[in-house]
């Protein structure tokens, strides 16, 4: 969340894509404020739970926007190290490689560099978040029937950016003294997707050891 990054200085103001804002005064904005307040308490397992009386779709929507903004910021700090040369394929360690397809513009998965893949991915996510029929921002406008499956696809893809940063760029993250932000952000993300069972376990395999370590600290 935004407060996690307030101590980093000017570097963190550089986002990879424009920040997605939730309109002030809206119910979703209130939910975001609630999320920030509970996160501040330090108990992440509790912070991710659906607040009493709230709509699950809306809670997932608000948090998905927030995770997009966080990853956007985290990746924005290391873009100069993630280049066509250093990362000619989109990978998360030697065993996992990702090829891009979005089902509409690019139907057949293509092999591309990590910066290209992440650009495709973040642009695609942005398009979903900006689609009022998928992510309605107005009160009383219902979420579509396929909302949950779209949200799951978004989160599955955002996970890949975390996985790439951890596997290929953790040294740069350490040099920039950003590891506490990365770890807190990722822990929040993982606890959230675990709470609502939003990403298949197999998809999480590239960071399984880290996920277990983060979880065990909280038991």
TrEMBL record:
Annotated coiled-coil segments of the chain: none
InterPro entries xref list: MOB_kinase_act_fam, MOB_kinase_act_sf
Binding positions for Zn(2+) per the UniProt entry: 82, 87, 164, 169
Keywords (A to Z) from UniProt: Metal-binding, Zinc
Protein name: MOB kinase activator 1A
Taxonomic lineage: Eukaryota, Metazoa, Chordata, Craniata, Vertebrata
